[in-house]
Design a protein that fits this description.
Length: 297
């Protein structure tokens, strides 16, 4: 029976494994050289990536999910550095301190997603050599990481980055001024970062930015003075920025590529005095959506 399963694994493109604390002996010598997507589900406080992982030479996507009630420690992460075709990594409900303390080169990875992970000061204490370790990275998604307070300075050196999405990180209160160095950024999203009080002045240097989303950023009181220098901005999402009452910066009228503003009724009033300065601008008032699902996270 196992020989038949082994033969199927040899030709498999997708492999999904669910387990508890450790792999059974039958999984330890898995041969799956053609697998391109690997899904690992488990429920334990400490999880060690299986040794067979480094033999998956065609692997492009790895999704590791902890279904336990609290964050898990992940070890053997260094196995990923040998996977030259790996493009996407998704981690759910981990403590990532150990990963940042001993960073490994992920030269081929283009997308990293971190969901419901404990970060704390891990980013601030890490010393990642971006030019060597993350040279292909194009997208970072961080969602529901409740203890994320600040972004690491090394992130501002990932010049290949095109999309940065930080959402539902309620303790994030400040952004590095160096964020303006991400000159290839096209999408910048800080949705529901309720303690974030302002955007850095350097954001004006993001000339390739198409979408800016600060929706539900309850503490933001004003837009950057020189926001008008975002000459390629097409969409601005700013609904429920409840402390944003002041007149929009005069430079806002220079956003000539702007086609869509999504906001609430109160913020829509801020656009009325300058709406005629734009050609074909759609001010979309978002409907009230009371969603309490985040309370369960």
């Amino acid at each position: 029976m196992w020989m038949k399963q082994e033969q199927q694994l040899i030709n498999a493109r997708l492999l999904s494994i669910s387990t508890d604390e450790s792999f059974s002996s039958s999984w330890r010598n898995v041969q799956a050289p053609k697998v391109e997507a690997l899904v690992l589900n488990f429920q334990t406080r400490n999880y060690t990536l299986p040794e067979f992982l480094e033999k998956m030479v065609e692997l492009k996507v790895i999704i590791i999910t902890n279904y336990g009630s609290s964050s898990a420690e992940l070890s053997n992460f260094q196995l990923l550095k040998s996977l030259s075709n790996l493009k996407r990594i998704r981690l759910e409900k981990f403590s990532i301190h150990s990963l940042c303390n001993a960073p490994i080169p992920l030269r081929s990875v283009k997308k990293i997603s971190i969901f419901m992970c404990n970060i704390g000061q891990a980013f601030g204490n890490s010393t990642i050599q971006v030019s060597d370790s993350l040279q292909s990275l194009m997208e970072i998604n961080i969602d529901y990481c409740k203890d994320l307070v600040e972004l690491p300075t090394w992130l501002c050196k990932v010049s290949s980055l095109k999309k940065l999405s930080i959402t539902n990180c309620h303790k994030l209160s400040a952004l590095p001024e160096g964020i303006g160095k991400l000159v290839n950024l096209e999408v910048l999203r800080f949705r529901s970062c309720i303690e974030l009080s302002e955007l850095p002045k350097s954001i004006r240097s993001l000339h390739k930015l198409h979408i800016l989303d600060i929706s539900d950023c309850l503490s933001i009181i004003k837009l950057p003075k020189r926001i008008g220098e975002l000459h390629n901005l097409k969409e601005l999402h700013m609904e429920k920025c409840l402390k944003l009452h002041k007149q929009l910066p005069p430079s806002t009228v220079h956003l000539k590529q702007l086609k869509l503003v999504v906001c609430d009724e109160e913020r829509a009033k801020l656009w009325e005095p300058i709406k005629e300065s734009f050609s074909g601008l759609n001010i979309m008032v978002a409907k009230e959506d009371i969603n309490l699902n985040w309370l369960k996270k």
